[in-house]
Amino acid sequence: xxxxxxxxxxxxxxxxxxxxxxxxxxxxxxxxxxxxxxxxxxxxxxxxxxxxxxxxxxxxxxxxxxxxxxxxxxxxxxxxxxxxxxxxxxxxxxxxxxxxxxxxxxxxxxxxxxxxxxxxxxxxxxxxxxxxxxxxxxxxxxxxxxxxxxxxxxxxxxxxxxxxxxxxxxxxxxxxxxxxxxxxxxxxxxxxxxxxxxxxxxxxxxxxxxxxxxxxxxxxxxxxxxxxxxxxxxxxxxxxxxxxxxxxxxxxxxxxxxxxxxxxxxxxxxxxxxxxxxxxxxxxxxxxxxxxxxxxxx
Length: 298
Ligand SMILES: O=C1C[C@@H](O)[C@H](O)[C@@H](O)C1=O
Ligand SMILES: [Co+2]
What we know:
Pathway: Polyol metabolism; myo-inositol degradation into acetyl-CoA; acetyl-CoA from myo-inositol: step 2/7. It contains twelve helices and eleven strands. By secondary structure, the chain is α/β, with parallel strands linked by helices. The N and C termini lie close together (about 10 Å). Bound molecules: ligand LX7YND4F and cobalt (II) ion. Cobalt (II) ion binds near residues 158, 188 and 271.
């Protein structure tokens, strides 16, 4: 289905310890997390807040388990702070990832985002960018994309629930306002389904610009409850809105087929944040790994 060596499989540490809610998985250690990733059969990981920041220490711990760093999240504030502030933090993040051997940098604009607010209803409170904010975002991302390119790296933009780039239309707007050579796209199946969008629409519209993939599924009955009870993004995560691919309602067969048809090259990152006390991270990592093998042969 996919060309040999075209796709590598990673898993995000957020199922073991949640950076957005550190009380989820507080007792899970860095070593347990990466050992279980390797045990479940993954080749890579993104970076969590328990990971050592010293590239030497991190390299050694990962190498012992046959893992590499795929990428890591960066919060941009291009719509609400001067460009230079975001650019300085971005360069430090870029240099760390470059030393770790990663070649993509995940960026999400957090200006007026409600994703980290425990009590703001997700479906009522998301920001809608003004023309001025769109212009600042597009221009700023272009600048960050050029900084990434200085190191031969690629900026991949993460559309996300509760932010100004959540819907199919907002993703299309961002792609239109930015240059393909500067800003690529991260495809996150779970965020699109959660937003009520058809993930295939985004794939079909932007495939040549998709350079990183987050695979997560949704539990539709929980998403319905999030809407009905006006829960926030963090409450939704705690309630189990997300799960691993194959365990929810997203039609991954079509997603994989579309990506393969266009010879996708890069990482697939399983990223399914849920409460580790309710969903054993190793059990779900093994479940995800098996599902990907059975659906794609990878
Ligand atoms: O890529 C991601 C990083 C997380 O911190 C975020 O909240 C999650 O939903 C996600 O998709
Ligand atoms: Co994601």
